[in-house]
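Let's practice the habit of predicting before peeking. Look at the sequence and jot down your guess about where helices and strands might fall. Then scroll down.
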Amino acid sequence: MASLKEVRSRITSVQSTQQITKAMKMVAAAKLRRAQDNILRMRPYAQRLNSILGNLTALAGEDVVSEYGVVRDVRRVLIIAITSDRGLAGAFNSNIFKGVNAVLQDRYATQAAAGNVTVLAIGRKAHEYFGKRLPLLGNYQHVFGKLSFDTVREAAEQAMDGFRAGQYDEVVMVYNEFKNVATQIVRTEQLLPLVPAEQPVGASAASNVDYIFEPSKEEIVRTLIPQSLKVQLYKAVLESNASEHGARMTAMDKATDNAGELLKQLKLTYNRTRQAAITTEILEIVGGAEALAAGR
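Done guessing? Here is the structure:
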């Protein structure tokens, strides 16, 4: 059985840890509120932009989207893996690692075996993990420190330029989609080449929209496509940001509860150890008194 000093030391250590996890939970909750507001504002814009783009491309013809919509034999692949800069968020980052590995195994096993898979790692954890395993494109380790559209746009443009130049035949994103505080869903989405939007059966989405084009259909669509791709990546980063804070808040809440349970056990152990020590001392005193009495 541990000594009283050892048990007191463990109680103090667990109490300090519990205070830290409580503070981290509160910080994550404050950041989550802002991140959740950002993604909730972003989703309607991104969905509407994609809807307009789908209608315009349907009206303008397939030749307009050829730059980003050309389908080639998939020999070289770029995977955009979005994680966090910091840990202590439960399985948030490891789920992305598993998601990317699953994509490599199920979809790009041939390309991975040939060494034709590159990773654009957004977040320090992705950079550290994939930097030891696959070639990296760019350096976006600290995007979430000063998260903005301009920072993400740079990453999107690098991926888009690589696709246009033929360096990559497909570009895929793997990220955590925010559902609620306790739930994050790993999503795998193809960014490039563009996949035509599904139209309702028996109807055309563009047939119900009467657009006035100025200056022209082609120029407007060519402007909207790059913007839509950048917005799509930015939306994925915002989803990941909100998911990170939700995952960290949940993880720290569980850690705080676990620390509380451990404290109960340690205090019970301390009281038992203390009682055993007192009982031993009483027995020693009684034994000594009886010995003195017998000696008389």
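How did you do? Confidence is low (pLDDT under 50) at residues 200-207.
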